[in-house]
Write a structure and sequence with these properties.
The structure holds two protein chains of two kinds. Chain A is α+β, with helices and mostly antiparallel strands. Chain A has three domains: 7-110, Acyl-CoA dehydrogenase/oxidase, N-terminal domain (Butyryl-Coa Dehydrogenase, subunit A, domain 1, Orthogonal Bundle); 116-210, Butyryl-CoA Dehydrogenase, subunit A, domain 2 (Beta Barrel); 213-359, Butyryl-CoA Dehydrogenase, subunit A, domain 3, CATH 1.20.140. Helices cover 52% and strands 15% of the residues of chain A. Chain A has a four-stranded mixed sheet with strand order 1-4-5-8, covered by helices on one side. In chain A, helix 5 runs antiparallel to helix 6. Chain A is globular. Chain B has three domains: 7-122, Butyryl-Coa Dehydrogenase, subunit A, domain 1 (Orthogonal Bundle), CATH 1.10.540; 127-234, Butyryl-CoA Dehydrogenase, subunit A, domain 2; 239-390, Butyryl-CoA Dehydrogenase, subunit A, domain 3 (Up-down Bundle), CATH 1.20.140. In chain B, helix 8 packs antiparallel against helix 9. The two termini of chain B are 40 Å apart. The chains are: A alpha+beta, B alpha+beta. Chains A and B meet through helix 7, strand 10, helix 8, helix 9 and helix 11 of A and helix 6, helix 7, helix 8 and helix 10 of B.
Chain lengths: 362, 397
């Protein structure tokens, strides 16, 4: 048994944090979120760090590390509210291409030349696996509507998750190909923009996958990564609240000396730290492909998103009026946390699956 | 990071499982099994503790010279998990193993180590804790029990309360005021008190469940020799903190595996209980509650593991133990309350009713759980510790 990150993993975390502090400080993130969004010219720098292929084996052009290392980076990106397409391209897109053995596209993603995103939910907004949201695939042409496609504006490659009469499938299609229309939807969270894609007999390439098991793997990675983002940003929100309550004085003393304030933050800390434990467990289980990976990832994402949302709410409350302004960065943490909670299932729907795993053995 | 046992750990775990299976007391855990009462109960637990010791399962990480095994700390964690999982009886020396022993190991004299440690492990001597007083609970440093220095020792007079095992204990760890002239933290001294000494009187306290697990201890001019002081005279507060940090550090694994067992029983209850013709386990609200409780139990398990890793690195129990204890206590309260809700109106029937569900055990557990957020540091004190010691917020007092 060994429950701590290795020295190498901690070094990776430190360098990710340093890079984010340096290149994506809160005012920069604010400008991107409130302005035109992420500039795809900034993406190849991420490739240069070797982060894109972090969990891809060296012989396939990656860094040869694992999903736990990827999770460490994702947590730090969440902490910084990184507005780039890491979740869409690395956690989801690249893994989907690997599941479908699309070698040429994989190398284009690894080099940073192309950016991939994944269209999963249909018009009902559900990220189901079995059956996957319905699409139609006929004569090498793909049709259907995909909602909540992250980072659509900076992506040039779409991986479509869908279900047909033949079962679950994955397809690749160029975002700007004939038969594809797309638009960005105005999202509450400006740091991760969501899109809509309409495919009308678009020329697509079907990837060969192992049915729902492949989609489950993809979903579990997404859930564990979203949990890590939530833990990262939840911790940061608590730190902001601590900085404020240690220095802001009322009634002649720092407000953090009042238990009504301090205990809220102690509770937020407890919730985020216990969620962090679940997140690392889920990350390890997904990395190792253990039997509990799916249940663990669902439980971790449910709990981490709820902890992050609550931590932000407590941070806003303990900041008082300033925490409620657009000027203060807190609202962006809150909105990202709410976005994380809303994607790939809110806590209650994830718990319904956890309950089924626990109570209804096949 | 690897949550699996190493080969060595796996061997230890499976040998321990086998030993527990083969050695649990006759009838233990079977339906309708009644534990012995009174004196026979004490003998039963003493005997069980002795057998655990002889099999090599007590004091795993303690030094060999005091009866321990100097095994890796992970073995101790595995032991606590497996004993909890098997729902085996506890070693009688709960306070000795978790509080008195670690404190003597960390702060005691060589003579004290030689004298006391082995007998804690064997179960020959049972310990209790004399910290809280009627006027000093969370504000422990305000305690008033007096220790007056005399030739060759101290004379102690006062009253302690909420003391588990005191009615069967041979020894007590005791904090008393040896000097009331200065700061309240400065004048305290930490003693090892013979519970059989003249002037010690124990009265059981009946608690919310009707059981009497804990006691009051009255001390009337009890003589304690000078060599029964732990640490320096007047340094009792820092020794007491050593005890309390160990208390919380040791709680985690055993409590979590017992919680895991309780959760599985709750699932059994939800599957067996019908309301309006459907099983509770099919009710979406109950299912949400169960999934949430399961998540709590896993979160606690891995939070313990993380706290344990930092313990392994630093060698001292950290404030993470406060997070785990706080979270465990509230989870246990939610879990046992859920059982009552699943029972419906039958939650009104306690032990002694032939219509009570599972003999009324959940009612007993639920009432007992209210103590969890009070004992070993109230939730309010633990939140203060987290706020001040972990988060670095200014002191509230």
């Amino acid at each position: 048994m060994d429950f701590a990150f290795s020295e190498e993993q901690e070094m990776l975390r430190a360098s990710a944090r340093e890079l984010m502090n340096d290149r994506y400080p809160p005012e920069r993130v604010a400008a991107i979120a409130d302005g035109g969004g992420f500039d795809r010219e900034e993406w190849p720098a991420i490739a240069g760090l070797g982060w894109i292929g972090i969990s891809v084996p060296e012989e396939q052009g990656g860094a040869g590390l694992g999903f736990l290392e990827e999770l460490v980076i994702v947590e730090e990106l969440g902490r910084a509210l990184y507005p780039g397409p890491f979740l869409s391209t690395v956690v989801l897109g690249l893994e989907a291409l690997r599941l479908g053995r699309a070698e040429e596209l994989i190398s284009d993603i690894l080099s940073g030349k192309r950016i991939a995103t994944v269209g999963w939910a249909g018009e009902d907004g559900r990220f189901d696996v079995d059956p996957a949201p319905k699409v139609s695939w006929d004569d090498e042409r793909l049709s259907g509507v995909k909602l909540f496609v992250p980072d659509i504006g900076v992506s040039d490659l779409l991986v479509i998750v869908g279900g047909t009469a033949q079962g679950a499938g994955l397809w690749t299609v160029d975002r700007d190909a004939e038969g594809v229309t797309w638009r960005e939807l105005p999202t509450v969270d400006g740091t991760r923009r969501q899109g809509e894609v309409t495919l009308r007999e678009a020329r697509a390439t079907a990837l060969h996958i192992d049915g729902p098991a492949s989609l489950e793997r993809l979903r579990d990675r997404a859930l564990a990564a979203l949990a890590a983002e939530a833990v990262g940003l939840g911790s940061r929100a608590i730190e902001l609240a601590l900085d404020h309550t240690r220095t802001r004085e009322q009634f002649g003393k720092p407000i953090g000396a009042f238990q009504a304030v301090a205990h809220q933050l102690a509770q937020a800390f407890l919730e985020v730290e216990t969620a962090r434990s679940l997140c690392y467990w889920a990350g390890w289980a997904v990395a190792e492909g253990t039997p509990e990976a799916s249940t663990a990832a669902a439980a971790a994402k449910a709990r981490a998103a709820e902890a992050a949302v609550a931590a932000c709410e407590r941070a806003i409350q303990t900041h008082g009026g300033i925490g409620f302004t657009w000027e203060h960065p807190l609202h962006r943490y809150y909105k990202r946390a709410l976005g994380i909670a809303a994607t790939f299932g809110w806590g209650d729907s994830l718990r319904a699956r956890v309950a089924a795993d626990l109570l209804d053995p096949p | 990071m690897d949550f699996r046992d190493t080969a060595e750990e796996a061997r230890f775990r499976s040998a321990l499982r086998r030993w527990l299976q083969e050695n649990l007391p006759e009838g233990w855990g079977s339906p309708g099994y009644q534990e012995p009462e009174g004196e026979a109960r004490v003998e039963f637990y003493r005997d069980w503790s002795r057998r655990l010791y002889e099999a090599g399962y007590v004091g795993l990480h303690w030094p060999k010279r005091y009866g321990g095994h100097e095994a890796p700390l992970t073995f101790q964690a595995i032991l606590l998990e497996e004993v909890g999982r098997a729902e085996a009886p506890e070693h009688i020396g709960v306070i000795g193993l978790g509080m008195a022993g670690p404190t003597i190991l960390a702060r005691g004299t060589e003579e004290q180590k030689e004298r006391f440690l082995r007998k804690i492990l064997t179960g020959e001597e049972v310990w209790c804790q004399g910290f809280s007083e009627p006027g000093a609970g969370s504000d422990l440093a305000s305690l008033q029990t007096k220790a007056v220095q005399t030739d060759g020792g101290f004379v102690v007079t006062g009253q302690k309360v909420w003391s588990s095992f005191a009615h069967i204990a041979d020894w007590s760890i005791l904090v008393a005021r040896s000097d009331d002239s200065g700061d309240k933290h400065a004048g305290l001294t930490y003693f090892l008190m013979d519970m059989h000494a003249p002037g010690v009187e124990v009265r059981p306290l009946r608690q919310i469940t009707g059981d009497a697990e804990f006691n009051e201890i009255f001390m009337d001019s009890v003589k304690i020799p000078a060599d029964r002081v732990v640490g320096e005279v007047g340094d009792g507060w820092s020794v007491a903190i050593t005890t309390l940090m160990n208390e919380r550090a040791n709680l985690g694994f055993a409590l979590t595996s017992r919680l895991d067992v309780a959760f599985r029983k709750l699932v059994t209850l939800a599957k067996a209980t019908g309301t309006n013709g459907t099983r509770a386990a099919d009710d979406p609200l109950v299912r949400d509650r169960l999934a949430s409780l399961w998540t709590d139990v896993q979160a606690l398990r891995f939070t313990n593991y993380r706290a344990f890793s930092s313990f392994l690195r630093t060698g001292v129990p950290g404030p993470e133990g406060s997070v785990a204890k706080l979270f465990w206590s509230e989870t246990n309260q939610r879990l046992t309350k859920t059982a009552l809700q699943i029972e419906g109106a039958f939650a009104m029937l306690g032990t002694g009713s032939d219509r009570a569900v599972e003999g009324g055990r959940w009612q007993n557990l639920q009432l007992r759980s209210r103590g969890n957020t009070i004992e070993a540091g109230t939730s309010e004190i633990l939140r203060n510790i987290i706020a001040e010691r972990v988060l670095g917020l200014p002191k509230s007092r």
